[in-house]
């Protein structure tokens, strides 16, 4: 687990105050809520937010939009991966059928 | 061989610091790995522009670079672990949004409900959860005629052993569906529970019939009541009352008892009492001789119209 101080030390431009604001806004959810302990993922997320605001110059309200979209994308990607993994476990002929159906949908538009 | 850092950012060597930042941001917004999850090429390009900006975006280092004191590869930004590397794993599950799968649920009967479930089950404090309104539960309830017209409260036992209190409104009709809000199946996440839909089947009554808000009853009267009139006891949906049969009433004639029908929002219906003259079961000598005498003097033809028409 990483402490608040660890995160601040490892992310450029970051201060404890800013980090706390991000946590309060729900942008960062400490892995260990009780102890305010952060994980590597939380660290990477803090770096991302700092990137967006400090390097790329996005305004705070834009960051909220971006995070929302990024989280949705990862939600979708995760479901997609789960779906593909499940498909991989099906017998070959069924997989081939699914593949064919997907392809024909793409090409044919309406069924 | 290192590329020229200005051309990496697409700016002239003479560009101002502000222009360099502007050019860098424009490229970075397009190429940032966390804005392009799953795109490996974007990451490579991003690293290049970030490294270039690390030098020419810094006044001091830009000077060193311009004078050839450091080269393009001289400055490597410390390796950053991008958020996307975690986003797909267990750690990222706290952040992954599973909002907005309701349309997918509608799209696929078989699989739709699978999506977002996991997020809902796992979502930590403040996490966005998958929410879906619970399904409506359908039941059928047999109701006695008098309970249907007067309204009542009843309790039904559900297949799962639970119970449901149902208030049956006065005047409920056969086939009417009552909706009990929130008494259906529980919703998922923040979703509201569904409703209980209760289809009412009204059992017919041996005496009362219903027509809209009116109640129809056939009431037999005696021969003498028909001739002389009088008060007869009549059942209504709320109990027995006395109805006045006018002198000279006939079979098929209807008495209207105002307000004795079904009470609805728009007022109350009436009870219609259809009279039918019933002779005594045994015709005694008295009646027989009276009828014979009466016929001699008062012959009449109730079938005249019938003959004219058919």
List the defining traits of the structure above.
heterodimer; A: about 110 residues; mainly alpha; 2 domains; 5 helices; B: about 300 residues; alpha+beta; Helix Hairpins; HSP40/DNAj peptide-binding domain; 4 domains; 4-stranded mixed beta sheet; 3-stranded mixed beta sheet; 13 strands; rod-shaped
Short account of what is shown:
By secondary structure, chain A is mostly helical.
Could you characterize what this model shows?
The complex is a heterodimer of chains A (111) and B (310). By secondary structure, chain A is an all-alpha fold. Chain A folds into 2 domains: 1-57; 59-111. Helix content of chain A is 70%, strand content 0%. Chain A contains 5 helices and no strands. The radius of gyration of chain A is 20 Å and the shape is elongated. The termini of chain A are far apart. The mean pLDDT of chain A is 87. A 4-stranded mixed β-sheet of chain B has the order 6-7-13-10. Chain B is 30% helix and 23% strand. Chain B has 11 helices and 13 strands. Chain B folds into 4 domains: 5-85, Helix Hairpins; 88-122, no CATH class; 137-202, Sandwich (HSP40/DNAj peptide-binding domain), CATH 2.60.260.20; 209-298, Sandwich (HSP40/DNAj peptide-binding domain). Chain B has helices spanning 5-9, 17-31, 40-56, 59-66, 84-87, 102-107, 117-122, 145-150, 223-228, 285-298, 304-309; strands spanning 137-143, 152-157, 163-168, 177-180, 196-202, 209-211, 214-222, 230-236, 239-245, 254-257, 263-264, 267-268, 271-278. By secondary structure, chain B is of the alpha+beta class. The N and C termini of chain B lie far apart (117 Å). The model of chain B is unreliable at 118-128 (pLDDT under 50).
């Amino acid at each position: 687990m990483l402490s608040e101080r660890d995160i601040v030390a490892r992310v450029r431009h970051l201060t404890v105050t800013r980090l706390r604001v991000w946590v309060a806004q729900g942008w960062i959810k400490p892995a260990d809520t009780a102890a305010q302990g952060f994980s590597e993922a939380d660290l990477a997320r803090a770096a991302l937010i700092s990137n967006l605001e400090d390097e790329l110059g996005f305004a705070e309200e834009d960051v909220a939009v971006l995070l929302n979209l990024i989280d949705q994308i990862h939600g979708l990607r995760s479901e997609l991966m789960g779906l593909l993994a499940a498909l991989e476990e099906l017998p070959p002929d069924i997989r081939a059928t699914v593949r064919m159906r997907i392809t024909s949908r793409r090409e044919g538009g309406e069924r | 061989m290192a590329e020229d850092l200005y051309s990496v950012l697409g700016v002239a060597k003479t560009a101002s610091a502000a222009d360099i930042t502007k050019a860098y941001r424009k490229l970075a917004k397009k190429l940032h790995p966390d804005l392009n999850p799953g795109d490996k090429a974007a990451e490579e390009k991003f690293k290049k522009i970030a490294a270039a900006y690390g030098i020419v975006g810094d006044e001091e280092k830009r000077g060193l670079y311009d004078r050839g004191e450091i080269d393009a590869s001289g400055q490597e930004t410390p390796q950053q672990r991008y958020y996307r590397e975690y986003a797909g794993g267990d750690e990222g599950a706290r952040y992954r949004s599973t909002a907005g799968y309701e349309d997918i649920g509608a799209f696929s009967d078989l699989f739709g409900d699978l999506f977002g479930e996991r997020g809902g089950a796992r979502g930590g404090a403040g996490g966005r959860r998958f929410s879906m309104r619970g399904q409506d539960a359908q039941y059928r309830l047999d109701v006695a005629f008098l309970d249907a017209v007067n309204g009542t409260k009843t309790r039904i036992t559900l297949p799962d052993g639970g119970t449901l209190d149902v208030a049956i409104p006065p005047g409920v009709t056969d086939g009417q569906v009552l909706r009990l809000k929130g008494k259906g199946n529980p919703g998922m996440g923040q979703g509201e529970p569904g409703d209980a839909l209760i289809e009412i089947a009204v059992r017919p009554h041996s005496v009362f019939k219903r027509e809209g808000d009116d109640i129809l009853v056939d009431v037999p009267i005696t021969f003498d009541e028909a001739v002389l009139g009088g008060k007869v006891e009549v059942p209504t949906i709320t109990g027995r009352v006395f109805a006045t049969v006018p002198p000279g009433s006939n079979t098929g004639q209807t008495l209207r008892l105002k307000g004795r029908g079904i009470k609805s929002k728009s007022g109350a219906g009436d009870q219609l009492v259809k009279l039918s003259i019933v002779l005594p079961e045994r015709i005694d000598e008295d009646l027989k001789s009276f009828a014979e005498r009466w016929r001699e003097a008062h012959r009449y033809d109730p079938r005249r119209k019938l003959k004219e028409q058919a």
